[in-house]
Amino acid sequence: MNKIYVNELKNYIDKEIIFSGFVDVVRDKKWVQFIILRDSTGKVQATVEKSVEENKNMVDLISTITRDSVIKVIGKVVKNEAVKLGGIEIIPSNIEILSLAEELPFDYNNLDGVNIDTRLDYRWLDMRNEKNTLIRQVESALTQGMREFLYKENFTEIHTPKLIGTASESGSSVFEVKYFDRLAYLAQSPQFYKQMALAGGLDKVFEVGPVFRAENSNTNRHATEFTGFDLEFAHIDSYEDVMNLEEDLLIAGLTKVKELYGDKIKELFDMDVVIPTKPFPRMDLQDLYKELHDLYNYVIPEHDIGDTNAETEKLIYKYAMEKYNSEFMFVTGYAATKRPFYHMRKEGILQGYDLIWRGTEITSGAQREHRYDELVKNAEEKGLTNDVKFYLQFFKYGCPAHGGFGIGLDRLTMLLLGLSSLKETQFLFRGPNRLEP
Fold it and tell me: How far is CA 265 from CA 93, 128, 349, 370, in A?
């Protein structure tokens, strides 16, 4: 039978139902017992009168129930204006313990002072915190909104392999995996396979899947495995087309989140879901360097010239808010030496961008180089010719002009909710020092 959830109970007033959930609280008073039950949609009160003879077995049973046990209740849903939980309660006729919980190692409703790594060791308990449940729901809604938008735009969802035969992309190290009698590698992104799909005749593709980066980085916004939302589409005129599509995609995703969870996000995280308006402001990197210097006395470190860093991104956000009242800003004009070989260049100028949101880079996008001879030249320049031989084959037999980008869903969710670390955001965090649970 289908489970009835808390947010559906109003449809069952004066009806006998079966309800199951976690025990949030047991209050054993002199004349009455209250059990607060919860599921992923909310909480409901079950009330047992001790003076009723038929309730004796339930009364005895309730005295043995521990917090976070899972129980099944058969009973009638009734209105009671005195009940704070929606003015509804369940009057049980039978209670069954499905799973009796042991004493919890920490109080997940009060995480102050609980070390984040302790929380991650018991992630399944940490998840029971209302905020952490909402994080998962918000990321799901964000994905849903973006997926629905792309389906309406006639994109095809693909699923690319995560085991690959060569360490193919520059910019990040790769994880080696023993693959029978040789080495394989965990894919750093679906980039090459997205482009292969376009060379195969699919004009618009996207994928939501795991991405692996063997970076020994312990910052708040990096992980060795994360969920990427990647797309690529053909027959574009410039990287402006890619930026335009990303604007629409993010507006669709944020609109879905606001529609489903905007009020709850405000209640639990004190964050507003701001739906941006088009167009997002756009600036060349060299112009930004000048503005940041003139306004904030900031000078880009020599080793970062042609690129941005974490401090630059925070100042870009400040500048975008002050000048454009926008949480977003596209930055163009990055140095070709700072970007992958497959990004197109025109007269030496990189045809790509980064998108900064709330002080953090969330996307690197570009028009891709689709001309075989140019790709070979770029790969040679970066010393990658042998590593990307299989990839270069995709472009020998004709390939349309195309572009795309990738977004880290975990990072996007972190920024949306104003969280400080991917350790809080990801369902199960993976970093240099964590492989469990």
Answer: 37, 16, 41, 43
DSSP code of residue 281 = P
Indicate which residue of 207, 232, 247, 361 is catalytic: 361
The CATH class of 6-99 is mainly beta
pLDDT, mean of residues 54-71:
94
DSSP state, residue 221? T
Tell me whether the CATH fold assigned to 6-99 matches the one assigned to 124-425: no
pTM of the predicted structure, to 2 decimals:
0.90
Catalytic residue among 130, 153, 215, 374: 215
CATH, range 124-425: 3.30.930.10
The answer to whether residue 361 is catalytic is yes
Unique residue bearing structure tokens 């396979």: 193
pLDDT digits (tens, 9 = 90+) for 145-179: 999 999 999 999 999 999 998 775 554 588 999 99
CA angle 86/89/95 to nearest 5° reads: 140
Task: State the alpha helices, DSSP H only, in 82-129.
Answer: 116-121, 123-126
Q: Is 109:67 a contact under the CB 8 Å cutoff? A: no
How far apart, in whole angstroms, are the C-alpha atoms of residue 263 and residue 227?
26
CA distance 299 to 311: 10
Query: What 3-state DSSP class applies to 384?
Result: coil
Active site residue 303: no
Is 148 designated active site? no
Is the backbone of residue 54 left (phi > 0), alpha (psi -120 to 50) or beta?
Answer: alpha
Write the pLDDT tens digit of every residue in 86-97: 899 999 999 999
Distance in angstroms (rounded) separating the CA atoms of residues 139 and 414: 9
Note if 402 is an active site residue: no
